[in-house]
Design brief:
It is built from 6 helices and no strands. With about 170 residues, the protein is mainly alpha-helical. It has one domain. The longest helix is centred in the first third of the chain and has 32 residues.
C-alpha cells in the first residue's frame, strides 16, 4: 500500500502522462477542432442562408459559444500546464461549461427552421455528439478528481494555515 509521501513524491509532482495529454488537448486540439468546425458550419450556413435564415442565426450563436468555450479551454489548459493555484478547479469549471454547451448545441439545430425531413439526420448527429461529449466530460472530470498525479501536483499549492502572529 502506498503512503502519502510516496504519492506526493517527485514522480507524480509534474505535468506528465494523462495530465499532459489533457493540457495539450485544452491548449491546442480543442481550439483547432473548434476552428475546423466553425469553417464547416460557415460554409453550410452560407449555402442554406437564403432558404433557411434561422440556420444562419443558430450557426452564429453556436459559433460565438464555441469560440468562448475554446478560449476558456486554452485558459484552463495553460493554468494546469503552469501549475497555477486553482487550476484544477478552473479545469473542472471548464468541463462543466463544456457540458452545458453540449446541451445547448443539442437543441440549436432544431431551432434553425429546417424542414421536418431533416429531423432524423439531426437527431442522429445530436445523439452522437452528446454521447461523445458526455464521455469526454466524464473521463476528464473523474480523472481530475481521482488522479494521483493531479493530487500530488496541485495539492502542494494549497496554502498552509497561517502561523500565529503575536
Amino acid at each position: 500500500m502506498e503512503t502519502s509521501t510516496a504519492l506526493s513524491g517527485p514522480r507524480y509532482q509534474s505535468v506528465g502522462g494523462w495530465l499532459a495529454l489533457f493540457c495539450l488537448g485544452l491548449i491546442f486540439f480543442t481550439p483547432l477542432l473548434t476552428l475546423n468546425s466553425l469553417i464547416d458550419a460557415h460554409s453550410s450556413a452560407v449555402q442554406l442562408a437564403d432558404r433557411y435564415p434561422g440556420f444562419l442565426v443558430t450557426t452564429l450563436v453556436d459559433g460565438v459559444l464555441s469560440l468562448a468555450l475554446a478560449a476558456f479551454s486554452v485558459y484552463a489548459g495553460l493554468a494546469l500546464w503552469r501549475i497555477r493555484p486553482g487550476a484544477v478547479r478552473t479545469a473542472e469549471i471548464y468541463l462543466l461549461c463544456f457540458l452545458c454547451y453540449q446541451g445547448i448545441a443539442a437543441v440549436l439545430p432544431f431551432l434553425a427552421g429546417l424542414p421536418a425531413s431533416a429531423n432524423h439526420g439531426l437527431t442522429e448527429a445530436v445523439y452522437k455528439n452528446l454521447t461523445r461529449g458526455l464521455l469526454y466530460f466524464g473521463l476528464w472530470y473523474s480523472y481530475l478528481n481521482k488522479s494521483k498525479r493531479v493530487k500530488a501536483t496541485y495539492n502542494a499549492l494549497r496554502p498552509l494555515s497561517a502561523p500565529d502572529l503575536p
